[in-house]
Amino acid sequence: MEIxxxxxxxxWGVQAFVKTLPGVKFTEAGRANGTxxxxxxxxxxxxxxxxxxxxxxxxTIRELMGYFFEIIDPYSLNKQxxxxxxxYRTGVYSEKQEHLKEAKAFLRERDDNELIVVEVLPLTxxxxxxxxxxxxxxxxxxxxxxxxxxxxxxxx
Length: 156
Known about the structure:
Layout: E1 2-8, H1 11-18, E2 24-32, E3 47-54, H2 61-68, E4 79-80, E5 83-84, E6 90-94, H3 97-108, E7 119-122, E8 126-128, H4 136-139, H5 149-152
Parallel strand pairs: 6-7
Antiparallel strand pairs: 1-3, 1-6, 2-3, 2-8, 4-5
Helix pairs in contact: 2-3
Protein backbone atom coordinates (compact mmCIF):
# COMPACT_ATOMS: atom_id res chain seq x y z
CA MET A 1 0.00 0.00 0.00
CA GLU A 2 1.11 3.56 -0.72
CA ILE A 3 0.06 6.91 0.76
CA UNK A 4 -0.80 10.21 -0.92
CA UNK A 5 -2.55 13.31 0.46
CA UNK A 6 -5.27 15.22 -1.40
CA UNK A 7 -6.43 18.74 -0.55
CA UNK A 8 -9.54 20.00 -2.30
CA UNK A 9 -11.34 22.46 -0.06
CA UNK A 10 -13.22 21.29 3.01
CA UNK A 11 -11.92 17.82 3.82
CA TRP A 12 -15.33 16.41 4.72
CA GLY A 13 -16.41 16.04 1.09
CA VAL A 14 -12.97 15.11 -0.18
CA GLN A 15 -12.83 12.22 2.29
CA ALA A 16 -16.39 11.10 1.50
CA PHE A 17 -15.53 10.97 -2.22
CA VAL A 18 -12.02 9.52 -2.08
CA LYS A 19 -13.01 6.62 0.18
CA THR A 20 -15.35 5.32 -2.57
CA LEU A 21 -12.66 5.10 -5.26
CA PRO A 22 -11.36 1.79 -6.63
CA GLY A 23 -8.10 0.77 -4.98
CA VAL A 24 -8.44 3.12 -2.00
CA LYS A 25 -7.93 1.11 1.18
CA PHE A 26 -8.31 3.83 3.83
CA THR A 27 -8.71 7.56 4.32
CA GLU A 28 -8.03 9.89 7.22
CA ALA A 29 -8.91 13.57 7.61
CA GLY A 30 -5.97 15.79 8.49
CA ARG A 31 -3.79 18.81 7.90
CA ALA A 32 -0.68 18.96 5.75
CA ASN A 33 2.37 21.18 5.59
CA GLY A 34 1.71 23.46 8.52
CA THR A 35 4.41 24.38 10.99
CA UNK A 36 2.93 22.94 14.18
CA UNK A 37 2.71 19.29 15.20
CA UNK A 38 -0.60 19.67 17.04
CA UNK A 39 -4.17 20.73 16.30
CA UNK A 40 -4.14 23.56 18.85
CA UNK A 41 -3.44 27.14 17.93
CA UNK A 42 -4.09 29.40 15.00
CA UNK A 43 -3.77 28.65 11.30
CA UNK A 44 -0.07 27.99 10.66
CA UNK A 45 0.06 27.48 6.90
CA UNK A 46 -1.57 24.06 6.81
CA UNK A 47 -4.02 22.82 4.18
CA UNK A 48 -6.99 20.58 4.99
CA UNK A 49 -6.30 17.23 3.36
CA UNK A 50 -7.21 13.58 3.19
CA UNK A 51 -4.52 11.00 3.82
CA UNK A 52 -5.23 8.29 1.27
CA UNK A 53 -3.92 4.74 1.42
CA UNK A 54 -4.21 3.00 -1.93
CA UNK A 55 -3.18 -0.18 -3.71
CA UNK A 56 -0.98 0.86 -6.68
CA UNK A 57 -1.76 -2.44 -8.45
CA UNK A 58 -5.42 -1.33 -8.62
CA UNK A 59 -5.20 2.45 -9.10
CA THR A 60 -2.36 4.74 -10.18
CA ILE A 61 -1.55 8.27 -9.09
CA ARG A 62 -2.62 9.50 -12.52
CA GLU A 63 -5.97 7.75 -12.16
CA LEU A 64 -6.38 9.18 -8.67
CA MET A 65 -5.61 12.62 -10.10
CA GLY A 66 -8.34 12.14 -12.69
CA TYR A 67 -10.84 11.30 -9.96
CA PHE A 68 -9.60 14.24 -7.87
CA PHE A 69 -10.24 16.63 -10.75
CA GLU A 70 -13.90 15.54 -10.72
CA ILE A 71 -14.38 17.23 -7.34
CA ILE A 72 -12.23 20.37 -7.52
CA ASP A 73 -12.11 23.60 -9.45
CA PRO A 74 -8.43 23.45 -10.45
CA TYR A 75 -8.38 27.12 -11.48
CA SER A 76 -9.58 28.51 -8.15
CA LEU A 77 -6.88 29.75 -5.79
CA ASN A 78 -7.61 29.24 -2.09
CA LYS A 79 -11.32 28.66 -2.69
CA GLN A 80 -13.55 25.64 -3.30
CA UNK A 81 -17.30 26.24 -3.15
CA UNK A 82 -18.07 28.45 -0.15
CA UNK A 83 -14.78 27.51 1.53
CA UNK A 84 -12.34 30.41 1.26
CA UNK A 85 -8.81 30.78 2.60
CA UNK A 86 -5.35 29.26 2.21
CA UNK A 87 -6.32 26.18 4.21
CA TYR A 88 -8.80 25.35 1.43
CA ARG A 89 -6.26 25.47 -1.41
CA THR A 90 -5.99 22.49 -3.73
CA GLY A 91 -2.98 20.26 -3.68
CA VAL A 92 -1.38 16.84 -3.82
CA TYR A 93 1.33 15.93 -1.31
CA SER A 94 3.50 12.87 -0.84
CA GLU A 95 6.70 11.65 0.72
CA LYS A 96 7.42 9.70 -2.48
CA GLN A 97 9.04 11.64 -5.31
CA GLU A 98 7.52 9.24 -7.85
CA HIS A 99 4.00 10.28 -6.77
CA LEU A 100 4.91 13.94 -7.20
CA LYS A 101 6.42 13.29 -10.64
CA GLU A 102 3.28 11.46 -11.78
CA ALA A 103 0.99 14.18 -10.42
CA LYS A 104 3.03 16.90 -12.14
CA ALA A 105 2.99 14.94 -15.41
CA PHE A 106 -0.80 14.64 -15.16
CA LEU A 107 -1.08 18.42 -14.79
CA ARG A 108 1.47 19.18 -17.50
CA GLU A 109 -0.31 16.96 -20.05
CA ARG A 110 -3.63 18.76 -19.69
CA ASP A 111 -4.59 21.31 -22.34
CA ASP A 112 -5.48 23.80 -19.59
CA ASN A 113 -2.24 23.35 -17.62
CA GLU A 114 -1.36 27.05 -17.66
CA LEU A 115 -4.56 27.86 -15.76
CA ILE A 116 -4.23 25.19 -13.05
CA VAL A 117 -3.34 26.35 -9.52
CA VAL A 118 -3.18 22.91 -7.84
CA GLU A 119 0.06 22.64 -5.88
CA VAL A 120 2.11 19.45 -5.98
CA LEU A 121 4.61 19.39 -3.12
CA PRO A 122 6.51 17.07 -0.84
CA LEU A 123 4.72 16.34 2.41
CA THR A 124 6.64 18.12 5.17
CA UNK A 125 4.21 17.66 8.04
CA UNK A 126 0.93 15.90 8.71
CA UNK A 127 -1.43 16.12 11.68
CA UNK A 128 -4.53 13.93 11.98
CA UNK A 129 -7.72 15.96 12.42
CA UNK A 130 -9.88 15.64 15.52
CA UNK A 131 -12.28 12.70 15.69
CA UNK A 132 -15.27 14.97 14.94
CA UNK A 133 -13.88 15.52 11.43
CA UNK A 134 -13.23 11.85 10.60
CA UNK A 135 -15.85 10.56 8.13
CA UNK A 136 -17.95 13.62 9.00
CA UNK A 137 -20.44 13.35 6.13
CA UNK A 138 -21.11 9.67 6.84
CA UNK A 139 -22.09 10.62 10.40
CA UNK A 140 -23.71 13.99 9.59
CA UNK A 141 -25.03 13.70 6.01
CA UNK A 142 -26.86 17.03 6.14
CA UNK A 143 -23.73 19.09 6.90
CA UNK A 144 -22.50 21.50 4.23
CA UNK A 145 -20.39 20.07 1.43
CA UNK A 146 -19.11 21.90 -1.64
CA UNK A 147 -19.18 18.71 -3.71
CA UNK A 148 -22.57 17.87 -5.28
CA UNK A 149 -24.15 14.72 -3.87
CA UNK A 150 -24.37 13.01 -7.27
CA UNK A 151 -20.57 13.28 -7.56
CA UNK A 152 -19.99 12.14 -3.97
CA UNK A 153 -21.95 8.97 -4.70
CA UNK A 154 -20.66 8.32 -8.22
CA UNK A 155 -18.39 5.37 -7.33
CA UNK A 156 -20.33 3.80 -4.46
